[in-house]
Amino acid sequence: MDRFNQCKKMVVPLFCLAVLVGCTGEEEEEQQKEQEKFAVPVEITLVEKGNVSSFYSTTATLEAPEEAHVMTRISGIIETINVEEGARVTKGQVLAVIDAKRQQYDFNRSQAEVQIIEQELNRLRKMNNKEFISQDTMAKLEYNLQAAIAQRDLAQLQVEESRITSPIDGVIATRFVKQGNMVKEFDELFYVVNQDQLHGIVHLPEQQLPSLKLGQQASIIYQHSAAQNGGQQAIQAKVLRISPVVDPQSGTFKVTLAVPNTDAKLKSGMFTRVELKYDTHNDVITIPYNALISQDDSQAVYVINNTIAERRVVNLGYREDNKVEITSGVSLGEQIVIRGQQNLKDQSLVEVITPLNIAAVK
């Protein structure tokens, strides 16, 4: 009897445990079936063909290839100022005038001396008794005439230099004087800069030298408040000059870019980002970069097969903005997930929340 009771006590817990394990297994199977029935919402696009370029990104400082520090060649008081900062000027335009009364008096005196010597020479040449005129006297007068003419021309030049003119076409960047100021010889009066075309100065590592050539395309990217895409705007430039030597201290070489600036959006001295275009692959398979999933040092995408998402490892080529070249892993026209792929695993059931109009895309 005691033995029966002991057996009974052992059998009952084992039976309860078996029932509990069976219930737990059934619950897990039901949960797994529910998960299999659940479809993950995703957004998809088609694998297409396109052109993708390879770029090298760096920075550049913009410089004006034409600039002039306008100085005075004479001393005097500023009589008039004809331009202000920001004004566009042309080559030869009068920017300011210096009081040149003293220089004008010197010119008048030099002109009078020239006329006196010329009259004396003409009188001696017209004399009939030329044997009374020594050759030495005539030679001295001719030399004196040449010296007087040079002095007169110098005085005339100083009068002309009282009119300060612009040596280039451009814009008045800085005005250093005011009307009525006294200026001395070689004082700077204006700073004129031509920004219709700027130069972007880039210093690249010596390893990039074989990849560059004259005329190569580049993009100048700068911040602009009116632009979209986070305030960034791009202007197309090209390689104008490549330095033939490498700086031994920095290991870089200088590259000069020609940057068009007819709309005057760029300014000399600006710091910009540069993307040099090295190569372009035409008519290759491309997908959006945001479709990629990075895992274990590999890149993968989810390809839609009916309502199932298949995970495929892909190999990448060039990347340009949000477009990336795919060298293997997907085929043209296949549907890939571009949003919601973080919630997927291989062979997951999916629901396309934005169906593609495939005919319209083609």
TrEMBL record:
Q: Which residues form a coiled coil?
A: 107-160
Give the GO cellular component terms, alphabetically.
efflux pump complex
The CusB-like beta-barrel domain is annotated at 202-277
Q: Where is the Multidrug resistance protein MdtA-like barrel-sandwich hybrid domain?
A: 67-194
Q: Which residues form the YknX-like C-terminal permuted SH3-like domain?
A: 284-351
Q: Which Pfam families match?
A: Beta-barrel_RND_2, BSH_RND, YknX_C
Q: Does the keyword Phosphoprotein apply?
A: no
Reading the lineage from the top rank, the first entry is Bacteria
Q: Which UniProt keywords apply?
A: Coiled coil
The UniProt similarity line reads: Belongs to the membrane fusion protein (MFP) (TC 8.A.1) family.
Q: What is this protein called?
A: Efflux RND transporter periplasmic adaptor subunit
